[in-house]
Amino acid sequence: METLAAILIGLLAGSGALLLLRGGLFRILLGLALLAQAANLLVFTAAGLGRGDTAIIAEGSETLPADHPDPLAQALVLTAIVISFGSLAFCLVLLKKTRARIGAAGVPALANTES
Amino acid sequence: MMPVDPLAPAILVLLFFLSAVLAPALSKRFGFPPTLWCLVPGATFVVLLSGSGPVWQGAIPRASVPWAPELGLAWDLWLSPAGLLLALLVSGMGTLVVIYAAAYLQGSDRLGRFLGILFLFSGSMMGIAVTENALVLFVFWELTSIASYLLIGHFHEKAESRKSALDALLITAGGGVVLLAGFILLGEITGTYRIGGWIEAAETIRSHPLYAAAFLCIAFGAFTKSAQVPFHFWLPGAMAAPAPVSAYLHSATMVKLGVFLLAILHPVLGGTPLWHDTLVGFGAVTMVWGALVAMVQTDLKHLLAFSTVSALGTLTMLLGMEHVLSVKVAVLFFIVHALYKGALFMVAGALEKGTGTREIGQLRGLMRRFPALGIAAVAAAFSMSGLPPFVGFIAKELLYEVKLATPAVGMALLVAGIVANAANVVVALKVGVLPFLGEPRGEGPQNLKPTKIGFWIGPVLLGSGSLVFGLFPHAILGGPVEAVVTQIAAEDVAVQLKLWHGLNLVLLLSAITVLGGVGLFAMRRRLSRYGNLLRDATMWSGVTLFRSGLAGFLTGAGVITRTIQSGRLHTYLAVIFSVAVAGLIAAWWRSGYVLTLPSRGEVRTDVLLTLLFVAVAAIAVLRCRRRMTAVLILGCLGFGIAVFFALHGAPDLAITQILVETLTLLLFALALYGLPAMREERRAGVPRAIAVPLAIAVGLAFTFLTLKAFDVQLAEPVSIAHAAKSLTEAHGRNVVNVILVDFRALDTLGEITVLMIAALGVSAMLGHARSPFPAERLGTSPVLSASARYTAPAMLVFSIYLLLRGHNDPGGGFIGGLVAAMSAILVHLARPSAPLRVFALSAPALMVLGLATAALSGLPGLISGDGYLAALWGGEIALPAVGKVKLGTPLLFDIGVYLVVAGVVLLLYGAMEGRRAAENSEPSPSPLS
């Protein structure tokens, strides 16, 4: 199962990279979103995929069962999801402003904006 | 006489630095007369002189002030005879220069600043004189270069001043860096940075393979500082400085530093053919070249500058000859030159003030106007020409004597010396005598300021010094010169100084020199034709070459920068990806790691279908040609991942993911206005042949990284400890939430801060474009309006429920905050005129309040001594629906997270919606259509 998940992560990251390398402004944004998903999944999967139990201590128990999913990875991914949302919004606005500045010329025109 | 306290020099150095700070501060207040600042160097001079007795007798007081003991760095102080001589020169000349500068720059609003830098310079010079630790000495050395830069650029409104200042800085400070390399080599060879230690280890150093490298580095530093050909050109350029600076730094003190350093390091590095050849070679060439070029200058200060170059060459050559006699001449000449050259520079500056010109051709008949200056100038010029009874005569006699005493190279040097000295006679006559002869020309003096005492007291004192020293040489200079020569030559020497050596060969040579000089002076008009040729040649000499080299260097750096920093986003990304992938491959290669696939385990159909769904969605995003479709597919992909999370025991993640995907969709929809349609975008990325393999490599890297991370278990997962403590110590069953708000609360605090910064960035970029009367949006659904009235408050209540129960069940601050923000957005979508608020708080207020709550919730732990953000728990309360809630600082922290997240989302939404409303004040199609 983990192997399949790893392949999916590779697919997501590869698609993201391709969009970043080849795309115009909008596709770059899509590529960023895909890359962010891939990174989140990577952290989640790398910690090991559980059997479906949650990281919540059952009533009457003191701790998680032996084969529990990793709560630390989940905590990391949880904040990562929210932060990637924030950064995506930031990039979205950056893109809008860039677009307003360079017009229809597209990404190559970015090279001439520093002066 | 009182012996000098070993620490006194350090206090004197600090006194100068203190004055450097005070002089600019006091200059404009309290009517503090600037001339009084001469008391600082003056008192220093007196203190040093009164304590100098034991030093001249050979006692060297030493002390050490710890500076950075953990680096083994200490300010080692010593008062050696050579250092004392330099310190006396610096403080004595400094006294006169301050008086002179106060007159020269009278009325200038930059006088305070000028004096401040002057004291910075004097302090650094004093530091060099009394410091034994080479590293500390280097610091002072570079400080003098910086002070010199600032002083040359005093008239910074003139472009030539700035350029000359920069030339001087680059040459001398650059030389200083090479000097440091030399010091470090010596430090590595001997294991100490004390010059005394080096002297003890001199034999080891001279036979060490790195000796040549160390010597050449140090010689380079000394030669740049002391303006040896071919590094000399910065010195004539430095004449752009005000006259007091030329008299002080660029004739008497700073330019002598190179010579001083070579002198005190002679016991360490001297006595080898390399030392001899290098110093004599550079010194002799500099001596002759400087004198010849000086002879044909027409600008008073340039004349003096080139003759200073010549004098510095003479000093270097004398140190290179390594005869006891030559060292003695060098020491004497060191003093003599400071006396006459300082005086002549002051005279030149005064004449410029008086007449407005420095062109020799226009200066005549000034004796009547400025008699004191004239007398001083003539005295200095006679000393420079080597006429008796001035002290310059003694120096020149000895100069010839030493050349006669070392016949091997002596004869060639003797001829060179006679040429240089004859040229010096011409220079002396042109500067010191010619302007005062004859009848006034042209309009005469423009102002009579130089008749004031401040202008002539310095030259007169220096000029009479030349005379008095010449009449009583042994009584005044015998002891000091003997001590310094003993130190430099590292052997006991008895020095006898007398004015009259009797009628001998040396006197004959002196006479020939003077007559030759006078003859050349008389023929100066005829010589001027050759002079012009030489001057044209020297204009090209160093400055032009250096500046064009510098410009070429900058151009080259620009080309390299523009090549690397192309500004092409796609190229940057390709480089980043390539480097990352290459790094991974290299690490893998080195480790020899063999990948083992994780055991297959059972393949769950539900998970398999989810993965397939996500994969298909990813490919669809890749191939999609419409913006809105792409965004929707991206949302589907996110929901698929949420399902994946849910299937693997991560309900918190699943909920968060769903909420975030919803909000992302909303923001994209708002932002799509004004974004380029994908089809009309020009494709200009990395060529497909590169992009596709690179993207595949990135994908493979991610896959292998995941498998490898899964495979490698370096240590017991920390989450086991987290799980064990979660309920017992942190009173929470939902371990994920406990980690977020308790175990790793500091991380979370950082993360919500990052979120807030992102939101503020968005807000700053979009500005407050909100139109005061937002138009009711077309197509606002009546059903939405009606239902929002009930659903929105319910969502808000639900968000609080999620927040409170989060410690034990899925939920918490992040999720609650997202839901709260969505309830406000729902209200806004239904009624666009309604303000965007949660609990009557605007977005910025929410964020600030939230961050403050989260940050302050850590203080109780800090106060109780457990550390910042350590949890403190109180009692338990029972709430309807939620159940029992344990009160404590983590709950407060979670509330802070809740508020920040809600505020961030609202700010993002508000900024984008406001911008959209402003861009589309006229009704336009709904973004979803």
Model description:
Chain A is mostly helical and 115 residues long. Chain A has one domain (2-51, 69-103): Orthogonal Bundle (Helix Hairpins). Chain A has 3 helices and no strands. Chain A has helices at residues 2-22, 25-46, 71-102. The longest helix of chain A has 32 residues, at 71-102. Chain A starts with a helix and ends in a 13-residue tail after the last helix. The model of chain A has no long low-confidence stretch (mean pLDDT 84). Chain B is 71% helix and 3% strand. Among the domains of chain B are: 273-522, no CATH class; 732-929, no CATH class. In chain B, the strands form 2 sheets. Chain B has a two-stranded antiparallel ribbon with strand order 1-2. Chain B has helices spanning 8-27, 39-50, 53-56, 81-104, 111-130, 134-152, 159-190, 195-200, 202-207, 211-225, 234-237, 243-252, 257-269, 273-295, 300-321, 324-355, 371-385, 391-405, 407-433, 453-471, 473-489, 505-522, 524-564, 569-591, 605-623, 627-647, 651-671, 688-711, 718-728, 735-743, 745-766, 782-805, 813-830, 843-856, 859-864, 889-919, and strands at 62-68, 73-78, 873-879, 883-888. Chain B has 929 residues and is mainly alpha-helical. The interface between A and B is large, with 93 and 117 residues.
